[in-house]
Amino acid sequence: MSNAPSLYPKRHALPLVGRRVYIGDVQLAFFRLRFHFKAVEPLWFPSAGAANTLRGAFGYALRQVACTCGPVAHTHDCVYARIFEPRAPSRPGPSGFAEWPRPFVLRTRHLDGLVIFPRKPFSFDVHLFDLRNPALACFVQAFALIARQGMGPLRRKATLISVAQLDAAGRVVAQVWDGNRCTALLEPASVPLAENGPADSLAIRFLTPTELKCQGGLAAQPDFPVLFARIRDRISTLRALYGPGPLDIDFQALGNRAEKIEMTRCQVETAYVERRSSRTGQVHPLGGFTGEAEYRGTLGEFLPYLRAARWTGVGRQTVWGKGEIALLS
Q1: What is the average pLDDT value for the chain, to the nearest integer?
Q2: How many CB atoms lie within 10 A of CB 258?
Q3: Cα(77)–Cα(248) distance, rounded to whole angstroms?
Q4: What is the Cα–Cα distance from 230 to 258, expressed in whole angstroms?
Q5: pLDDT, mean of residues 18-37
Q6: Distance (Å, rounded) from C-alpha 189 to C-alpha 129?
Q7: Domains of the chain (ranges plus CATH)?
Q8: Is the dihedral of CA 216, 221, 225, 230 positive or negative?
Q9: pLDDT in tens, 174-224
């Protein structure tokens, strides 16, 4: 257990922020947090690997600040396990998940390959989907510890300066950590999932490597029915596990209509990349396809889900920064 100072009252639990507002609403709600740092030593992040590097360091640091369990099994109230190794307590979760998706993703793509000199600021975002107990203080303690112990492959030191809460448009709505103490999070950012207008064509850019499960394997390209199904299921699962509940929609009917959407252009390339953890020696695959695809059809009802996927990511290993997409039109 770390001797890091307490940043919030015991058990690191924040109140159930905004839950009453969002129950029953057809939307995705989440906390958008921006962590601001200043480099103490020259540091750099590997090309196309900042998220994976920080994700591994976060798990290691979070265990130090938020886990009092033994080395084998975690207790049901272990904050570390709930954030980094979430599992069904007694029965499978939605879609039979024994291992639940983690309640956060990192947004660090802008740091890939970046060299940061001493006293220079840098930042990255964390999207936190746990509305019931977001455990902000644990995230702050863990990233502060990472900065003190050293960031990036060379373990160069930095300082966590502050943490801001942003809305979906990128505006700062609150400073939730000022370098000394956490304050309560405000209402989550929200993205509506209801149809808000017709559309007959659109383009999607796959910003980071994306892997979509399809019929027991991985899809070679982002055909719309597969892409939409993975987005819909991820949003519903995050809501079910960490928010107001699963989506109250006709999954089969939506899937049937998604089958009618045609992909008119596909310019993606697949990268096969691996990273070896310097702490554990484990090899992590970072590959997947990137590029753009265009679609045509009756797309209006799908647009809100595609916009929401900007925040959740889609496909495998989203917590590592994979599956980040942008809607171009």
Answers
A1: 87
A2: 23
A3: 29
A4: 12
A5: 74
A6: 10
A7: 10-190 (no CATH), 194-327 (3.30.70.1900)
A8: positive
A9: 999 999 999 999 999 999 998 878 999 999 999 999 999 998 899 999 999
